Amino acid sequence: MTDLTEYLATCSQRVESFLDKNLPTKNQAPTTLHDAIRYSAMNGGKRIRPALVYATGEALGLKSSDIDCIAGSIELMHSYSLIHDDLPAMDDDDLRRGKPTCHRAYDEATAILAGDAMQALAFSVLTDIADPGPEAAIRAQLTNQLAHAVGSLGVAGGQAMDLIAVDKNISIETLEYIHRQKTGCLIRACIDMTQTCCTTLSQQQRSSLLQFGEHLGIAFQIRDDILDVISDTDTLGKPQGSDSDQNKPTYVSILGLKESEKRCDDFYQQALDCLDEFNHSSKWLRMLAEHIVCRQH
After folding, report:
1. Domains plus CATH for the chain?
2. What are 145-185's pLDDT values in tens digits?
């Protein structure tokens, strides 16, 4: 396989098959809640995070079946965070992936509960030793890594600081810290959790991969900020200009478009430099990194 589009489709099909197997069925009580969960989890999306898991696994010589639980748990956690981010108490968005957000398609209470249930399921699939995957001791470590990535020192904390920053003038250093938590922590977890399953890595290799995840997470967020300015709602699948409408600080609002594009490219180049010692095995990680900084939605 040489085409990234084909690779992304393969990764997407794999994680969606895993999710379909592990999500409650629509006809299982409470049916409305389970329908909302499937609506959000199986509602398309780029599946970039699972692709990063599988690409890291390929770079390390891991079998996809051994890391399906990581890809699935991270995608569930990501989907849960989107449901809650879209709520009126948070970003108050009406569209996600070109369709009504969960609280618009159902109601706010159902959306909150769907997010809660998906977060719980993310940990459940990660620790289920009945399924193929890592041994129990490694699963315990993976669970701790995911919990740290999404807690008050990770995604949740970043979202809290993001909300506090609305209508305020903040430094670029503060903004970068917010996005290292809100966006970067889960991107980094894709790399960190996958490499936990490989016992032959040197400390230097582990450090390089983690730095790759750190730099890529920031590049990902800067590109999001750029797209919020230069793209349109149909292409994005969510309201264009929503950050500006809510007066949220972004890289573009602080640095301007040209400097934001330069900074995105700088972080991208730093991410690529971290893969030097992995040579040809990091092919898909390199191609995914390029895709992230060049994407249109």
Report:
1. 4-294 (1.10.600.10)
2. 999 999 999 999 999 999 999 999 999 999 999 999 999 99
Integer CA distances (angstroms), 238 to 226, 232, 234, in order: 14, 9, 7
Partners of 158 in the beta sheet? none
Residues 105 and 96: their CA atoms lie apart, in Å, by 11
Separation between Cα atoms, residue 168 and residue 88, nearest integer Å:
20
The span from the CA of 34 to the CA of 28, in Å, is: 7
Distance (Å, whole) CA 16 – CA 25: 14
From CA 80, how far away is CA 120, in angstroms rounded? 10
Decide: residue 137, CB within 10 A, 0-12 exposed, 13-18 middle, 19+ buried: exposed
- pTM, two decimals, is 0.93
- Give residue for tokens 């959790």: 193
Q: What is the Cα gyration radius of the chain? A: 18
Q: How far apart are CA 268 and CA 289, in angstroms?
A: 7
CA distances from 11 to 49, 53, 206, 278 (A): 10, 9, 23, 21
Q: Which amino acid is at 163?
A: L
Question: Whole-angstrom Cα distance, residue 132 to residue 195?
Answer: 17
Greatest CA span in the chain, whole angstroms?
52
- 3 burial via Cβ count (<10 Å: 0-12, 13-18, 19+): exposed
**Inter-axis angle of helices 155-164 and 185-196, nearest 10:** 170
3-state secondary structure of 131: coil
Asked whether the predicted pLDDT for residue 233 surpasses 60, the reply is: yes
